[in-house]
Amino acid sequence: MTDTTPLAPAAVPAPGAAPAPAGGLDFESWTCPAPLRDTPNVVMGHGGGGAMSGELVDHLFLPAYGAAAAAELGDSAVLDVPAGARLAFSTDSFVVKPMFFPGGCIGDLAVNGTVNDLAMSGAVPLFLSTAYILQEGTSLAALDRIAQAVGAAARAAGVRLVTGDTKVVDSAGGDGVYVNTSGIGAVPEGVDIGPRRARPGDAVLVSGDIGVHGVAVLSCREGLEFGTTVESDTAALHGLVADMVATGADLHVLRDPTRGGVSASLNEIARASGVGVELVERDLPVPETVRDACSMLGLDPLQVANEGKLVAVVPGQDAEEVLAAMRAHPLGAGARQIGTCTAEHPGTVVALTGLGGTRVVGLPIGEQLPRIC
């Protein structure tokens, strides 16, 4: 789901206030007594593990997930994986504010984020868990939109939602909806991708425009206007990675530059591998809207979060072949080389400026854009 209308979580209704409408939810099929039918908002009982929890699963989550949902609902899932496969496992929590932003919401962000974490090891994502922490008073209509987005993103990515959990905290103890997703994927034979494999002479590639997601979230958080709507680039990247692997090139490192942006990812790679990284500023794909927003707010586009882009470090002789494969995929159409790895200044990232000088591209200090994922 990519509804771009910002929607904040509903507050607890004031005494005597009419209940908020619950979108497409049909409460007539729900059998629980009041307060469920009297208020279309999350109440503490939804996290209690009893009948109300069961109805939330049966009438909201499972219909939203559709074919991506597991057939059986137990405390754990028994999974069939390819014989002899190496498994990749990842977990992440999502607390983005606002929950809905231009181009996506916390639901598809949670699925795509964990799918991408698996893909960055070259894994084919297979199974995801979903765990929700809900603030009492959040509208069920908003929760339904998020669950629908989770289901749609999982189906699009070809992953199964095999287990999950729901907890409710009181109205003063949360902020709408938080989502945790964990994922399991299978790593194909011969694939060896990791942050310690970068070598001097490697090319540094990026799959497209940077800084888009962070600016999209920031634009609607405080009602900031940048002259045009910037939409999040959230997307599942495993198909793009599969096409890159299929070239036969020895992909050394893959990273999705989320929190801390491209800067954080490259600094982590440089330190893990003991190489230096040299970027060319004029080659950085920064859209004009992102550049203008960063200039206005004093931000470095290299440190702004992305949610649908990847950074790749590949042997220099394979760069053109890998770039061709990336550009042939819809999510890599804007791929380009932005730098190289070097034996000089190990562990440090520098950028060659348009004036012929250099500047150190460091790790961001603290969080520039709070709660962007």
TrEMBL record:
Domain PurM-like N-terminal: 75-187
Pfam family, one: AIRS
InterPro entries listed in its UniProt record: HypE, PurM-like_C_dom, PurM-like_C_sf, PurM-like_N, PurM-like_N_sf
Domain annotation PurM-like C-terminal: ranges: 199-349
Family indicated by similarity: Belongs to the HypE family.
Full protein name: Hydrogenase expression/formation protein HypE
UniProt source species: Streptomyces tremellae
